[in-house]
Specification:
Length: 231
């Protein structure tokens, strides 16, 4: 009999995360590609309307791989982040952000440790949000929960971007799929997960979101991106 994993994904293994951080590996803990993916996020969203005065939410921000770039670009206090791991948030603030002299632009209270997508402690009125490499590791039910709760804090017309491993109709959904570049193997029932478009459509059914196309944005590990607009 196959032994079931102890966690949905390795980010829920808090002891492992803490150990890696203590060993100085926090950048690799969130997937590496620190400079490439960090800058890629902010440049992509700037090209799609992100302005310095906007209120921005970074879901699954980890140790601020993208966060340091968003904090630099946005007006002071306009960046907010949430993550499952307080340890990752702390090392992001104390090491990465402090090392760049950017802590004055980010109140520490703008970083929320939460594993259930309850963004209410951060207040409402977000203009744009991003979940990068979050739902590549989580199920459709997690996505729906996120969209349901995110709708409460987004402004009408606000946009939420998420990345995913896309499984096209030409590939049997139940079979493993190898994504290139990166050679990441995804499956329907274990981390890392792949999604069809109709899984995203199901996730917003009955919720105040309009879904855009799934697009290629030249991610180095073949993650696609999709935008949802708050109605």
């Amino acid at each position: 009999m196959t032994k079931e994993p102890a966690h949905i994904n390795h980010y829920y293994d808090r002891a492992r995360i803490t150990r890696l951080i203590n060993e100085g590996h926090h950048r690799n803990t969130v997937g590496g590609l620190w400079d490439e993916l960090g800058l890629m996020q902010v440049e992509y969203l700037k090209a799609r309307g992100l302005q310095p005065q906007m209120r921005f939410l970074d879901i699954g921000c980890g140790c601020l791989r993208g966060g340091v770039h968003f904090v630099r670009y946005l007006n002071a206090g306009q960046y907010y982040g949430s993550d499952l791991s307080q340890d990752l948030l702390d090392v992001g603030y104390d090491v990465e952000l402090a090392g760049l002299g950017l802590t004055e632009k980010l109140p520490r209270a703008n970083l929320l440790c939460s594993g259930d997508f309850d963004f209410s402690p951060l207040g409402a009125g977000f203009d744009m949000a991003l979940a990068l490499s979050v739902f590549t590791h989580l199920t459709q039910n997690h996505l729906r929960l996120c969209l349901d709760r995110l709708a409460d804090v987004m402004t009408p017309g606000g946009t939420f971007f998420m990345t995913l491993f896309h499984c096209p109709d030409s590939h049997p959904w139940r079979d493993p799929m190898t994504h290139t570049p990166g050679n990441i193997v995804t499956q329907p029932d274990r981390d890392p997960f792949h999604y069809r478009r109709f899984h995203l459509e199901q996730a917003i059914e009955g919720l105040p979101w309009r879904m855009g196309p799934i697009e290629d944005w030249n991610h180095p590990r073949d993650q696609k991106i999709c935008a949802f607009t708050r109605l």
